[in-house]
Amino acid sequence: MITLKPETVHTDRLDLLPLQVEHADEMAAVLSDPGLHAFIGGTPDTVQDLRARYERLVAGSPSPGESWCNWVIQLRDTACLAGYVQATVTADGRGAAAEIAWVTGTPWQRRGIATEATQGLLAWLRQHPVHTVTAHIHPDHQASAAVATAAGLTPTDQSHDGETRWQLTIS
C-alpha cells in the first residue's frame, strides 16, 4: 500500500508548501473572487469554512490506499500565497494513479504560476510510483487546458460531470 505525504517542492519562482490549517486566513483572500467558480460552481469559502475544509484535508483520507496531497503556492520573491495544487493519489495493482487540480487566485493569473506549480507537482509525483495522472477540465476553460497541455497532459474522449478527462502516462 502506498501512502504519500506532501513535501515542500521548489520551482524556479515558487515554493509549494504542504497545506496547513493556518493557511486558511490568507487563502480565503486568495480564493475570494467569485469568478474562480465560473466553471466549478459554488461560491468562495469563508475563512471559517476554509479552515474546517483544511482540517479535513490535513487529517488525510479515511480510505486506505488513498493519499490526499495538498499544497499552497507561495511566490518566493514576495512570500505571499497565490493558489494551490493538489493530488489525490490512489494505490492500485501497478503502483498508484493521481488525480490533480490547480487554482491560482485572480490577481496572479496569466503569469505562468499555475503551469509552473503543476509542473512542480508532476516532478514530485514522478519521484513516487505514480503511473497515471489525470485532471478533469471544463471544455470551455481554456486557461486550465493550457496548463494541462504545458504539463504534458492530453485530453481523452472521456468526460465526467461535463468535464473532459485529461491524462498523462508516466513511464
The major sheet is characterized as: 8 strands, mixed
The total of helices stands at 4
Rounded to the nearest angstrom, the distance between the terminal CA atoms is 20 Å
How many domain units?
A: 1
Task: Explain the overall architecture.
By secondary structure, this protein is of the alpha+beta class. It has a single domain, classed as 3-Layer(aba) Sandwich (Aminopeptidase). The protein is 25% helix and 36% strand. The protein has 4 helices and 8 strands; from the N terminus they run E-E-H-H-E-E-E-H-E-H-E-E. The chain has an 8-stranded mixed β-sheet, with helices on both faces. Helix 1 packs across helix 2. The longest helix is centred in the last third of the chain and has 14 residues, at 113-126. It is globular and about 40 Å long. The mean pLDDT is 96.
What's the helix and strand layout?
Layout: E1 9-10, E2 14-18, H1 24-30, H2 47-59, E3 66-75, E4 80-92, E5 95-104, H3 113-126, E6 130-137, H4 142-150, E7 154-160, E8 163-169
Parallel strand pairs: 5-6
Antiparallel strand pairs: 1-2, 2-3, 3-4, 4-5, 6-8, 7-8
Helix pairs in contact: 1-2, 3-4
List its salient traits.
single chain, 171 residues, alpha+beta, Aminopeptidase, 4 helices, globular
At a glance:
By secondary structure, this protein is α+β, with helices and mostly antiparallel strands. The protein has 4 helices and 8 strands; from the N terminus they run ββααβββαβαββ. 25% of the residues lie in helices and 36% in strands.
